[in-house]
Each structure stands twice: as structure tokens, then as C-alpha cells.
């Protein structure tokens, strides 16, 4: 880890680096994305185009359409089957949040935390001046 000068941390000091960052494309199937979520134990992805430009974000909630499950704690087999049938043929681009809120690598960490606290978002993709995901 790089220690900040004068006690000021930036997003770049704490962001997920290439070797740990998982991304998907808008054409990735929902089933493929769900497999990666489970395998890597993560809760969402930045969505990038073929040039590495950030085009959206997608979360586990988006992929599972959790709001369509009844409010009960016990989810029945039929509800799970119904959910899985909804993913059939869908791709990440159908469910992602387009044009997400982003930060730069040199953004003050306190400012980034304030953004997260003010919004419902759980992640802030880091992009460069061209809108490409920084990894």
C-alpha cells in the first residue's frame, strides 16, 4: 500500500486493483455473471465495452431481481425456479445501471465516502479522463 503525503488518502490508495477486479460486458449472460458472483464471492461488477470504457454497473440485486421475491424469509423452490426462468436469455446490458456515478483515482477518499453515504450505491467505479475503467 502506498502511504499518503500529508495524511490525505485518495481513492487510488484503496481501490480494487486489476488482479482482483472482475468486470463483465453488456453481452455477458445473466447466468454467466451469477456464476462469477458465486465463484468469486462478490456483489457486483463494473460493466465495460470492448475498449474498456465503463458503460454501467450491475449488482447481485439487479441480476437476481430480488425485489420480485416475496418478503418472506423462506423462499420457496417455486419462487427460485421463477427467478431463474426470468434470467433465461437475458444479458447484463438488460439489467445494468447505465452511466453510473464515478470517481477518479486522485479523488479524496473522504469525498468518495460522502458520495457513498449520500446515495444508495455500494460501489464507485474509478475511471480515467476518457471514461475507461482504471484497473
Measured as a percent range, the helix fraction is 25-40%
Instruction: Look at the structure and give the mean pLDDT.
Output: 85
Order of helices and strands: HHEEHHHEH
**Strand tally:** 3
Low-confidence stretches: 66-70
Which strand-content bin applies to the residues? Answer: 5-15%
- Main sheet overview: 3 strands, antiparallel
Quaternary arrangement of the chains shown? single chain
Global morphology:
elongated
User: Radius of gyration from the CA trace?
Assistant: 17 Å
Counting H and I runs of at least 4 residues, what is the number of helices?
6
Spatial order of strands in the largest sheet: 1-2-3
Instruction: For the record, give the distance between the C-alpha atoms at the N and C termini, rounded to a whole number.
Output: 15 Å
Helix/strand/pairing class, anyone?
A: alpha+beta
Describe the structure.
The protein is of the alpha+beta class and about 140 residues long. The chain is built from six helices and three strands. The protein has helices at about 10-15, 30-40, 60-65, 75-85, 90-95, 110-120, and strands at about 45-50, 55-60, 95-100. A three-stranded antiparallel beta sheet has the order 1-2-3. Strand 1 (about 45-50) and strand 2 (about 55-60) form a beta hairpin. The longest helix is centred in the first third of the chain and has 11 residues, at about 30-40. The protein starts with 10 loop residues before the first helix and ends in a 17-residue tail after the last helix. Mean pLDDT is about 85; it is low at about 65-70.
Amino acid at each position: 500500500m502506498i502511504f499518503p503525503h500529508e495524511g490525505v488518502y485518495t481513492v487510488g490508495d484503496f481501490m480494487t486493483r486489476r488482479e482482483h477486479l472482475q468486470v463483465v460486458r453488456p453481452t455477458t449472460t445473466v447466468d454467466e455473471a451469477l456464476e462469477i458472483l458465486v465463484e468469486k464471492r462478490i456483489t457486483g461488477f463494473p460493466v465495460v465495452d470492448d475498449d474498456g470504457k465503463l458503460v454501467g454497473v450491475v449488482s447481485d440485486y439487479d441480476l437476481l431481481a430480488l425485489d420480485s421475491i416475496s418478503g418472506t424469509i423462506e423462499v420457496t423452490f417455486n419462487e427460485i425456479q421463477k427467478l431463474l426462468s426470468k434470467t433465461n436469455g437475458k444479458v447484463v446490458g438488460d439489467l445494468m445501471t447505465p452511466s453510473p456515478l464515478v470517481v477518479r483515482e486522485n479523488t479524496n477518499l473522504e469525498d468518495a465516502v460522502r458520495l457513498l453515504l449520500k446515495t444508495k450505491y455500494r460501489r464507485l467505479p474509478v475511471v480515467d479522463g476518457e471514461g475507461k475503467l482504471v484497473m
